[in-house]
């Protein structure tokens, strides 16, 4: 991890501590400590198991997609992919560093760059699509509650959905409509010509077109395997289900046994949508505010609400960054990706 990334990591931890301290402004530390030691450890372990399963299932998805062509790709390296993704998602605005971080990890193992990019893009498209599916379900269950209690948050939720939807459309265009994608790319890429020499510009444009062709070929190949795609879709649904259930088990650990699991899960789905709108890494500030705003009607005790928020952020944000930093230190296994993707020349 570079010095800049280490600095960002420490900065985000510091920002988190400041936000937590601010959230505790009306809560006595002694009361918070008392609430912590009255937690039901069994349900807290279940909540922790949920985030672990979430990461493990994503590792399985990565291995399934890569092993379809590179059988020597190990589960250890497949597990490093989502862990490093968590780290770079957590220290970059809009989680923009997650995809490049995963790509670097896969390249370290010897996977062809085009194949790795295609696998990550396919995984990302399925993931985003399943988020949208879950969001539609959550709308039916919990949007009325959000719109009634907090109208301003409902606007953030809908805006977050639109962003995810347009991301999917853009990615599908890259994967299955390369001719149109190149036309759009040519227009958007043209301003680069104002800042670089013609030879450099032509070289960059050819490389970009080759990557589009490469992604298209690999996407078509994977898309022609319906059993593989169905398997990835089902695994992604399972992955997201465990992630979305984390607040529910935290509430059980706090002693709130009568909460509606479907409503709590739906509210968490909406929080995820809201977080995606905040440019600060990890949605810091917005995540904590959204959680407290949506769950204050369910958790009557202010100290327990703050404790629930802290536990939720530790499990869904800080834990991933810590294990991601550890994963970077693990030496990857090498594979022989001898069947390189054939690239077309523009």
From TrEMBL:
Record-annotated membrane-spanning stretches: 7-25, 45-66, 124-146, 152-177, 228-250, 262-284, 305-330
Function of the molecule: Catalyzes the transfer of a lysyl group from L-lysyl-tRNA(Lys) to membrane-bound phosphatidylglycerol (PG), which produces lysylphosphatidylglycerol (LPG), a major component of the bacterial membrane with a positive net charge. LPG synthesis contributes to bacterial virulence as it is involved in the resistance mechanism against cationic antimicrobial peptides (CAMP) produces by the host's immune system (defensins, cathelicidins) and by the competing microorganisms.
Species of origin: Lentilactobacillus hilgardii (strain ATCC 8290 / DSM 20176 / CCUG 30140 / JCM 1155 / KCTC 3500 / NBRC 15886 / NCIMB 8040 / NRRL B-1843 / 9)
Keyword Membrane carried by entry: yes
Lineage top rank: taxon: Bacteria
GO CC terms of this entry: plasma membrane
Pfam families linked: LPG_synthase_TM (PF03706)
Protein name: Phosphatidylglycerol lysyltransferase
GO process terms (BP): lipid metabolic process; response to antibiotic
Membrane protein topology class: Multi-pass membrane protein
């Amino acid at each position: 991890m570079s010095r800049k990334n280490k600095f960002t990591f420490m900065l985000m931890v510091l920002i988190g501590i400041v936000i937590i301290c601010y959230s505790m402004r009306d809560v006595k530390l002694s009361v918070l400590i008392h609430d912590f030691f009255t937690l039901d450890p069994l349900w807290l372990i279940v909540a922790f198991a949920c985030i672990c399963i979430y990461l493990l299932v994503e590792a399985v998805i990565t291995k399934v997609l890569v092993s379809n062509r590179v059988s020597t790709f190990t589960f250890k390296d497949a597990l490093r992919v989502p862990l490093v993704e968590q780290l770079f998602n957590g220290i970059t605005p809009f989680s923009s560093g997650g995809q490049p971080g995963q790509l670097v990890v896969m390249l370290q193992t010897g996977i062809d760059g085009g194949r790795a990019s295609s696998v990550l893009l396919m995984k990302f498209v399925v993931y985003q699509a399943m988020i949208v599916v879950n969001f539609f379900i959550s709308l039916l269950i919990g949007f009325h509650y959000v719109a009634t209690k907090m109208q301003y948050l409902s606007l953030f939720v809908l805006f977050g959905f639109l962003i995810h939807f347009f991301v999917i459309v853009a990615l599908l265009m890259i994967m299955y409509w390369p001719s149109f994608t190149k036309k759009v790319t040519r227009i958007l890429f043209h301003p680069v010509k104002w800042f670089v020499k013609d030879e450099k510009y032509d070289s960059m444009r050819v490389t970009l077109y080759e990557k589009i062709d490469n992604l298209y070929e690999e996407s078509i190949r994977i898309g022609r395997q319906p059993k593989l795609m169905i398997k990835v879709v089902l695994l992604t649904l399972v992955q997201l289900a465990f992630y979305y259930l984390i607040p529910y088990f935290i509430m059980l650990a706090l002693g709130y046994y009568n909460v509606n699991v479907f409503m709590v899960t739906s509210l968490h789905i909406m929080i995820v949508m809201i977080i995606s709108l905040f440019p600060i890494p990890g949605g810091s500030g917005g995540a904590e505010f959204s959680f407290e705003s949506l769950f204050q009607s369910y958790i009557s005790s202010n100290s327990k609400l703050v404790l629930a928020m802290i536990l939720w952020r530790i499990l869904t944000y800080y834990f991933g960054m810590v294990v991601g930093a550890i994963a970077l230190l693990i030496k990857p296994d090498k594979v022989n990706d001898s069947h390189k993707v054939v690239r077309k020349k523009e």
